[in-house]
Write a structure and sequence with these properties.
about 50% helix; about 250 residues; Aminopeptidase
C-alpha cells in the first residue's frame, strides 16, 4: 500500500511540531546554563584579580594615605573624594564602586565599595567614614586619619569572601547618608551593624539607625579603633568588622 505525498508531509509536520518545541526548551535551558557558567567564571576572575591587589595593613601604607588626604583636604573637597574613588577603584584595590552624586551640583556625596557576602548577601556590615573635614574634633578623629583606616582595611581584604556583605562607604558628611541610602540600599537589605570611624563617631546610635532607615530591625552601632596609633586602630577596626561579617 503506497503512502501519498500529502500523508508523508503531514507526518513530517506533526513530528516537527513535537520535536521543535522540545528542542527550543532544551536550547533555552542550555543557554541559561552557559550564561550562568560564564557569570561564575567572570566573578571568579574578578575575585582572583582583586586578591592579587591585596595589601596587608602596615603603618607606612596608612601614613601614606593620611599624608595624601591631608594635602588634598588643604586644596578642596573634590580632591579628597577623587583620591578615595581612585584608591578604592578597580585599578588599585579591585572594587567596583557605587558613586552617589548630588543631582543638581554633581558633587560626590558618597563612595561605596562592597565585599558581597557568600551566605547572607543581604545582611550588611556597614563601615562609615566622612571625607569632609569636620570642625571641633580632636586630632585622632580628623578625616585623614579615619579615612586612612577605612582605605587600609578595605585594601587588606579585597577579594576576600565573607558570610555577610561588608560595605565600605565614605560619605561627604552625616547629612549625605540619606542620599546614599536612597540609591544604594534595597528593600531586601538589612544593615545588621554600623561601624563609625572618625568624626562620625560623635553621632548618636539613634541618629545613625534613623539615617540608614533600620529602626526596629536590630541594627547595632559600634565605634572601634578609639585607642592606639594608626596601625593599631586599623587592626582593631578590621578585627571587629570581619568578626561581624563571619557571624552565622
Amino acid at each position: 500500500m503506497s503512502t501519498s505525498p500529502s500523508s508523508t508531509a503531514g507526518r513530517i509536520i506533526r513530528a516537527a511540531l513535537i520535536v521543535l518545541p522540545f528542542g527550543t526548551i532544551v536550547l533555552g535551558a542550555l543557554s541559561f546554563v552557559i550564561y550562568f557558567k560564564k557569570e561564575e567564571k567572570k566573578v571568579a576572575r574578578s575575585a582572583r584579580y582583586a586578591m592579587a591587589l591585596r595589601h596587608e595593613l602596615d603603618l607606612a601604607g596608612l601614613q601614606k594615605h593620611e599624608q595624601i588626604l591631608r594635602g588634598a583636604a588643604a586644596q578642596n573637597l573634590r580632591n579628597v573624594s577623587a583620591y578615595v574613588e581612585s584608591t578604592l577603584g578597580p585599578e588599585n584595590m579591585g572594587y567596583n564602586l557605587r558613586i552617589v552624586q548630588d543631582k543638581v551640583t554633581n558633587e560626590t556625596l558618597a563612595i561605596e565599595a562592597e565585599l558581597t557576602g557568600t551566605q547572607k548577601p543581604n545582611d550588611v556590615v556597614l563601615v562609615l567614614a566622612a571625607f569632609a573635614p569636620a570642625a571641633s574634633v580632636t586630632e585622632d578623629l580628623l578625616m585623614p586619619s579615619s579615612l586612612s583606616v577605612m582605605l587600609g582595611v578595605a585594601h587588606a581584604n579585597t577579594g576576600q569572601s565573607r558570610q555577610r556583605t561588608v560595605r565600605f562607604v565614605a560619605v561627604r558628611d552625616a547629612a549625605a547618608l540619606d542620599a546614599w541610602y536612597a540609591q544604594a540600599v534595597s528593600l531586601n537589605d538589612r544593615v545588621t551593624h554600623v561601624i563609625l570611624l572618625g568624626a562620625l563617631r560623635s553621632m548618636t546610635d539613634a541618629s545613625v539607625i534613623e539615617a540608614v532607615h533600620m529602626r526596629d530591625r536590630g541594627t547595632l552601632v559600634l565605634r572601634p579603633g578609639a585607642r592606639g596609633d594608626l596601625l593599631e586602630k586599623a587592626r582593631e577596626t578590621e578585627r571587629v568588622v570581619f568578626d561581624l561579617a563571619e557571624r552565622a
